[in-house]
Specification:
- Helix content is 36%, strand content 15%.
- By secondary structure, the chain is of the alpha/beta class.
- The chain has a domain at 82-108 and 213-385: Rossmann fold.
- Helix 4 packs parallel to helix 5, helix 7 crosses helix 8 and helix 11 (332-343) crosses helix 12.
- The longest helix is centred in the middle third of the chain and has 15 residues, at 183-197.
- The chain starts with a strand and ends with a helix.
């Protein structure tokens, strides 16, 4: 039985009963938090209860909103590894750099966590038709989990969404459409069509459960670090559910006494300078972000000109003592190539933005050499062929092989 007590508006505090579907707050139209009876959880959930449980995100069931485990819709959302990156660390002058590799999840990105939870809760509520906008991996994740649950998925994406994501949605049976606009234009279509088409909107932070799925990143991270936490977490920030979800996880873990010290990571929201509404608001000292016109970045997951949870992201960043910062758009391909070649980890362009931000912060002396820095790789590089510019030299078997020339070409 779930330990959820109620839902609560993140802005005005209005409360809602938990065991029925909700989108935004009916009073102020802001996102809802899932709230738990943490005192009850504290009595029955600890490190010992985790022993022997399967290594998936569902091992933290007491801290998740699922009422009946039989309703879980899963493709086996494995615990993702934390990898050390010694050669990449040396590039920055760090003693150690950690990368949590979310590309190992079903559909190749961290979006699997949120959609697994959203679709699971939709099943509990008896919903059968779901819809969402996407600029990349969220659409494929919705399509996959809806297919797994036998539900209908409708996906709307900007026409410049990476071709792999477009084909993925179609292959997985979603009713997918390209739109000549940005992701918030697609979100508007989802919202406007809800009454006529009868779907439930599972857009980022427009229902309360995707964030609970993303929260498991923080729960996993804490367990993997033996209930201590790193000094810094760099997170590529578009809609922001991952960053906000992790911060919620740390608050809840502290409340039930699982964290071994009071230290929490300083959260860094990383954006491209081609689309940086959160950074702009952070630098202006504002709690809400202004929409960015003509948003552009090859990191499609960050091409979010206005996030519905902007204030939640900014609140978490500021509460942590962290910051929001941009990386130059024209450095993304270089960082992506360098990281992949040096470490063999398939880092996506969104994560390359984090490396660009880390480079800037090291140059400004904001991070100590011995600080424990962790970066989230939110997706697999293979899903972004448009960002990989390398072309292979060709060997003509009709001619003698010039080995010296090959060595020069491949250097």
């Amino acid at each position: 039985m779930a330990f959820v007590s109620h839902l609560e508006c993140a802005q005005c505090g209005k409360t809602f009963p938990a065991r029925q579907p909700w989108n935004l707050c009916t009073a102020c139209h802001k996102p809802l938090w899932v709230r738990y009876d943490l005192e009850r959880i504290k009595k029955c959930f600890n490190t010992r209860t985790l022993l022997g449980r399967p290594p998936t995100m569902w091992r933290y069931l007491e801290m998740l909103p699922v009422e009946d485990p039989a309703n879980i819709v899963s493709l086996t959302e494995t615990i993702t590894p934390i990898l050390t990156a010694p050669r990449l660390a040396a590039e920055f002058g760090l003693a150690k750099l950690f990368i949590k590799d979310e590309s190992r999840l079903p559909t190749g990105s961290f979006k699997a966590r949120g959609m697994a939870m959203a679709v699971t809760m939709a099943k509990e509520f008896g919903l059968t038709k779901l819809a969402a906008p996407t600029a990349g991996n969220a659409g494929g994740a919705l399509a996959a989990y809806a297919a797994r649950a036998g539900m209908e998925a409708w996906v709307f994406m900007p026409e410049d969404t990476p071709i792999i994501n477009q084909k993925e949605c179609a292959l997985l049976g979603a009713r997918a459409f390209r739109v000549n606009g940005l992701i918030d234009d697609c979100g508007r279509l989802v919202r406007e069509g809800a009454a006529t088409m009868g779907w439930f909107d599972v857009s980022t932070l427009k229902e309360p459960y995707r964030i609970e799925g993303k929260k498991t990143m923080g729960l996993e991270l804490a367990e993997q670090f033996d209930w201590h936490l790193p000094d810094w977490i760099f997170y590529p920030t578009g809609g922001g559910t991952g960053l906000v979800g992790m911060w919620k996880a740390f608050q809840e873990l502290e409340a039930i006494g699982l964290l071994k010290d009071k230290h929490r990571p300083r959260m860094v929201a990383c954006q491209s300078d081609g689309c940086a509404p959160i950074v702009n608001a952070f630098e202006a000292g504002a709690r809400f972000a202004t929409r960015v016109d003509n948003a552009r970045t090859c990191a499609s997951g960050l091409r979010v000109p206005q996030a519905v949870g902007d204030f939640m992201i900014l609140d978490a960043v500021r509460a942590s003592g962290g910051l929001a910062m941009t990386a130059p758009e024209n450095t993304i391909a270089r960082w992506m190539s360098l990281a992949n070649a040096k470490e063999g980890i398939a880092l996506c362009p969104e994560t390359a933005v984090c490396l660009g931000v880390l480079d800037r912060m090291m140059g400004q002396g904001k991070i100590g050499r011995q600080d424990r820095v962790l970066i989230f790789n939110t997706g697999a590089a293979q899903k972004y062929p448009e960002t990989i510019t390398a072309e292979l030299p060709q060997i003509d078997l009709g001619q003698p092989v010039d080995w010296a020339r090959l060595a020069r070409l491949s250097a």
